[in-house]
Design a protein that fits this description.
heterodimer; A: mainly beta; five-stranded antiparallel sheet; 11 strands; 0% helix; globular; B: mainly beta; seven-stranded mixed sheet; four-stranded antiparallel sheet; 51% strand
Chain lengths: 114, 112
């Protein structure tokens, strides 16, 4: 059972426009969420995170929104730049004791067209 | 420079020949983990370690072993590799559980 789902394998966006990457989860125990970016031949790098007590977190051009009732989060990149072209992974975990696993989605490949 | 170092970057082996992929971090992190990445399946956790001598299974532990004798090292051991273990492997660490993970550059393993 896939607990973290990224239903769009790929997304193309024009440079300067907004990129919106979506992620859905099924496990209501998840209480913190992260986005990672991955370039080819490199390991994933941390981008931004959000705790379940918040519904929005911003860091420069990147904003993550969390809708707990819908079990949905999204990553907004504004404005999109060619260097943002990468695979983006959504991940979720439980910060409380007893579960120390981070579950990743399958990833969405973002292409930003100059 | 703070980093997670995996070796080797590329490895081709044959079925049944024991191998070890090393992972070392220089950030004094307590939490370490191994993932494999396969096309269409994303990143799946193999094993993790909360601290020295404390390890536990992730989602896909079959066919793998780990050890955590020192804080900085977390090797992944394949006692008898099989072709279905051909994958891209990542080691990761974080200061403690719940903090952001730092990933190594990956090890591409091919088992013939």
């Amino acid at each position: 059972d896939q607990q973290v789902k990224q239903n769009s394998p790929s997304l193309s966006v024009q440079e300067g426009r907004i990129s919106i990457l979506n992620c859905d989860y099924t496990n209501s125990m998840f209480d913190y969420f992260l986005w990672y970016k991955k370039y080819p031949a490199e390991g994933p790098t941390f981008l931004i995170s959000i705790s379940s007590i918040k519904d929005k977190n911003e860091d420069g051009r990147f904003t993550v929104f969390l809708n707990k009732s819908a079990k949905h989060l999204s990553l907004h990149i504004v404005p999109s730049q060619p260097g943002d072209s990468a695979v983006y992974f959504c991940a979720a975990g439980v910060k409380g004791a007893g579960s120390y696993q981070l579950t990743f989605g399958k990833g969405t490949k973002l292409s930003v067209i100059p | 420079e703070a980093q997670v170092t995996q070796n080797p970057r590329y490895l081709i082996t044959v079925t049944g020949k024991k191998l070890t992929v090393t992972c070392s971090q220089n950030m004094n992190h307590e939490y370490m983990s191994w993932y494999r990445q396969d096309p269409g399946l994303g990143l799946r956790q193999i094993y993790y370690s909360m601290n020295v001598e404390v390890t536990d299974k992730g989602d896909v532990p079959e066919g793998y072993k780990v050890s955590r004798k020192e804080k900085r090292n977390f090797p992944l051991i394949l006692e008898s590799p099989s072709p279905n273990q051909t994958s891209l492997y990542f080691c990761a660490s974080s200061l403690v559980w719940g903090e952001k993970l730092f990933f190594g550059s990956g090890t591409q393993l091919s088992v013939l």
